Amino acid sequence: MKRFALWELGFRPFYLAASAYAAISIALWGLQYSGVLGATYLAGPAWHAHEMLFGFTAAVIAGFLFTAVVNWTGRPTPHGPWLAAIVALWIAGRVLVLTPFAVAAAAANVAFPLAIAWGIARPLAASGNRRNYFFVALLVMLSLAALCMHLGMMGVIEVEPRASLHVGLDVALFIVAVVSGRVIPMFTNNGVPGAGARRDLMVDRIALGSLLALLAADLIGIGWIVGGLAFAAALANAWRLWLWRPWRTLRTPLVWVLHAAYAWIVVHLVLRGIAAAGFIPETLATHALTVGVIGGMTIGMMTRTALGHTGRRLVAGRVETCCYVLIHLAAVVRVFGGWLLPQHYIATVLVAAACWSMGYALYCVRYAPYLWRPRFTA
């Protein structure tokens, strides 16, 4: 009988938990928003936004970093009982926000990014891997964003929860951009012979620097400069993507899904610049980031890293391709559907939610056996 391998490495429980939660969270949102769940600490759009960032996205970040840091350092990240305890902390955060216990909910959700930071800081420090220390700082910043949001929701401090979410989303965006620059050109050249994807250090610095400038503007609260920074960042990141030759990946789903997700960064930044000028609602830019960038990149990375680390061929089959199409379709409909067809806004939200839920449900069902069983050996 095959042993239960779920707690051996971070990607296993967190990819499974994140995909399952992504699939059911829309239904949970409807239940608590309609009042079926009774009095909850977070409700409606506040709950939805919080869970997209500090629930789903944070879980995927944990799974990726706990796995990547092992490769970067050759030293273990949390596994066994320690990994199970961190997963339990994440689950506690998801449950507590649906109760009236605000302080307990805040404590769990503030502690989780710190637990990830602790889990990667030890091997990074032990190996002297200073190049990746900044991930620890970003996770601490994500924890502080969660703290400010919860204190603002409880009325302890005068901070608009939306401002805390902006900072948290900027942190997540920067993490995605850094990781993308390291893996997408490599995966492209490995998966598409003759693709010619290349990195340019100057372009990388400009693209990432522009995202850091946007993060700083949101952190300090300099709203008047956000529009200009967003447009500049869009140009820089479009330039970066162009160097990776995305049009040469169209026959390789395992690769094009990552390029498509990065393209949503450019869309997000353009929409954010237009929103800053007051021409469109800011939620369009937000959903381009959360559904397009984060949703698209996570489904792509979760399939690729799970296949690779469980000893399977790096090929996207019909199920994987269906997942990719559903998530990117969800992004297109959610961002542009209600804007172009305002008379059918509710319908577009429901279609996008259904595509999102089906995409991650497919992943969960398909990959659960891969994630809880030991590495496959031919």
What would your notes on this structure say?
This protein is mostly helical and 378 residues long. It has two domains: 1-159, no CATH class; 182-378, no CATH class. The protein has twelve helices and no strands. The longest helix is centred in the middle third of the chain and has 31 residues, at 161-191. It is globular and about 55 Å long. 47% of the residues are buried.
Number of domains: 2
Task: Summarize the biggest pleated sheet.
Answer: none
Uncertain stretches? none
Cα Rg = 20 Å
Which oligomeric state applies?
Answer: single chain
Bulk shape:
globular
Q: Give the overall average pLDDT.
A: 93
Helix and strand sequence:
HHHHHHHHHHHH
The secondary-structure class comes to mainly alpha
| Estimated helix fraction | over 70%
The first-to-last residue Cα distance is 17 Å
Strand content: under 5%
| Number of DSSP strand runs | 0
Tally of separate helices:
12
Short account of what is shown:
It is built from 12 helices and no strands. With 378 residues, it is mostly helical.
Map the helices and strands.
Elements: H1 11-33, H2 44-73, H3 81-96, H4 102-127, H5 133-153, H6 161-191, H7 201-220, H8 226-243, H9 253-276, H10 282-309, H11 318-340, H12 345-372
Helix pairs in contact: 1-2, 1-12, 2-4, 2-6, 2-10, 3-4, 4-5, 5-6, 6-7, 6-9, 6-10, 7-8, 8-9, 9-10, 9-11, 10-11, 10-12, 11-12
Annotation keywords:
76% helix; 378 residues; mainly alpha; globular; 2 domains; 12 helices; single chain
